[in-house]
Amino acid sequence: MKAIKYIHDCGIVHRDLKPENLIFKTKAEDAEIMITDFGVSRVMEDDKMQLLTEICGTAGYMAPEIFKKSGHGKPVDVWAMGVITYFLLCGSTPFDRDTQKQEIEAIIVGDYKFEPEEYWVNVSEAAKDFIRECLTIDPTSRPTAEEALKHKWLADTESHFVLDQQGNMKNLLPHIQKAFDAKKTFRNAVFSVMATKLERMSALASAKQLSPETSAFGADIVQYMEESEKEIIDKI
Length: 236
Hints:
Blueprint: H1 2-9, E1 12-13, E2 22-24, E3 33-35, E4 42-43, H2 64-68, H3 75-90, H4 100-109, H5 117-120, H6 125-134, H7 145-148, H8 152-155, H9 173-208, H10 212-235
Antiparallel strand pairs: 1-4, 2-3
Helix pairs in contact: 3-6, 3-9, 9-10
């Protein structure tokens, strides 16, 4: 969040914050965290927030105003930090749904819950409140990066750990790993099915010696799959 405040103070909005774009500077235990991939970032003045209207970013981390095309700016980065925090505390994203259309619809209305309950039982109320603040639908009511840094979860001198009966910190990792592995297993299964279909189509094309036009279409399938996500977003 300090890094977000820094780039915002420099007049930069990142617009594609996600775990993949946060890296450790070194392998040390206390390594600094760096923000990467400024490919869709913009330099803008505070009084020109309404100028940015194009849809960009990664769907699950995009703020409602981006999909609404109502004009967006620095608040979208704070929203993304709320999604990232949710993910880091439980292993899944708050608006994860069966289809991307459902995911986008959930984002637009801010439809998320701290569920399953077992994944959140060891997370402090202060942490949940921080997420709620970041995931405020109205960007004008959403805290700035500077205001978010003053939230009790980040600013208090004492950490907000959930303790067991012996006074020890409860471990979040088992639940996080369970949620993450479940999603990874599902996606691997989907990708395996897709890969099998592509292999069969390729074999069929070779066996039947299809026309150049049909063969070219088969070669474009992967590209169509990559572009489908953007198509869905644009239609919505």
